Amino acid sequence: MKEVIQKEVMKLWEVEIIYPISDSLWEVVPKKGRMIVIKNEKNELIPTRTVTGRPMCIDYRRLNNATRNDHFLLPFIDQMLERLAGHTFYCFLDGYFGYNHIAVDL
Q1: Is residue 61 part of a domain?
Q2: Nearest CA among 70, 5, 80 for reference residue 35
Q3: pLDDT, tens digit, 9 for 90 and up, residues 55-93
Q4: Which Gene3D superfamilies match (predicted)?
Q5: Number of structural domains, the chain?
Q6: What is the model's pLDDT at position 63?
Q7: Is residue 44, in this structure, part of any structural domain at all?
Q8: Does some domain include residue 104?
Q9: Is the pTM of this model over 0.85?
Q10: For residues 79 and 18, which has the higher predicted lDDT (pLDDT)?
């Protein structure tokens, strides 16, 4: 199974979907595995959506435990549209929280 995972990781690296980070304190893919590889009908190990349509899975519970919760959640789109009703152009710039833009038919 280790060879299947190594082959899949190398495929993703070659097409620049993933890349190595040597100076990071984060552990994105835990060293003890935690990556699920599924067997298909032919008893082959499949780590991606190739034959079975099932994705390669990574257990992010340790990463989630280290991540801070966002206490500044974005409002629901229906709440934003209600507040924007009657205006012709909608653009919000905020240096701290980022940029939101909603396209509206005129």
Answers
A1: yes
A2: 5
A3: 455 667 777 888 877 777 777 878 877 887 887 766 665
A4: 3.30.70.270
A5: 1
A6: 79
A7: yes
A8: no
A9: no
A10: 79
